[in-house]
Amino acid sequence: MAIPTKSSATPEYDVEMLDRIVAFLNSVGIPVTENQLDDNCFLPGMFPKENGVLIDRARLKYPGDLLHEAGHVAVTEAHFRPLIGTSEMPGRWPNPGEEFGAILWSYAAVRAMGIPAEVVFHADGYKGDGEWLIEQFENKNYIGLPLFAWMGFCSIDENADEQSRFPNVLKWLR
C-alpha cells in the first residue's frame, strides 16, 4: 500500500466531475475512500485497495482515471477483490484480460453516467491511444467484448434485449 504523506496541493481538475464519479462508484458497490497517498501510485492520487479505491484529492490529476481503476476492481473475481492491493493477491493483477475488461467497464460507466468519454479516455492516458479507443467504441468495435460478456457483464447474443447488450451492463461487479 502507498505510504500516507501530507500534501497541500490545490486540485486542478473538475471537482464536480470527481464528486459525480465517486457517487456513481459508491452506488454500484465500489467504495471510494479518501486517504493521503504518496507519489508511488500507478495513477496519480489513487490506489485500488481491497474492494474499492483510495483517492487523494490533492494528488489526483484526472477524475476519469478513477473510473478505470474502479473498472479493475469491478472485473476482478469476487473472491479475489478483498485481496486487491495486498501481498496475498495471487499471480499478476490485473492480468491482460482484466485490462480489456476495465477499459470496457469504464466506457460502459461513462455511457451510464452520461458524461463524455474523454473524461476517461483523455490525451494523457492509455499510452496516447484514448482518442483511438473512443473512435473504436463509437464505431461499435468493442475490443474484448467476448471476454466482458463471459465475465457476465453483458450479453453478446444478437437476440438479447437492448438493455443487456453493451454498452449497457447487466451488473457492475463480477
The helix content, as a percent range, equals 25-40%
How far do the termini sit from each other? 24 Å
Shape: globular
> What do the pLDDT scores average to?
89
The low-confidence parts are 1-9
**How many whole angstroms does the radius of gyration measure?**
16 Å
The number of helical runs is 5
Task: Summarize the entry for a quick read.
The chain has 174 residues and is mainly alpha-helical.
Q: Layout of SSEs?
A:
Blueprint: H1 15-27, E1 32-34, E2 46-49, E3 52-55, H2 64-75, H3 96-113, H4 130-138, H5 145-150
Parallel strand pairs: 1-3
Antiparallel strand pairs: 2-3
Helix pairs in contact: 1-2, 2-3
Q: Which descriptors would you attach to this protein?
A:
3 strands, globular, three-stranded mixed beta sheet, disordered N terminus, 174 residues, mainly alpha
Question: Could you please describe the fold and organization of this structure?
Answer:
There is one protein chain. By secondary structure, the chain is mostly helical. Helices cover 33% and strands 6% of the residues. Helix 2 packs across helix 3. The model is unreliable at 1-9 (pLDDT under 50).
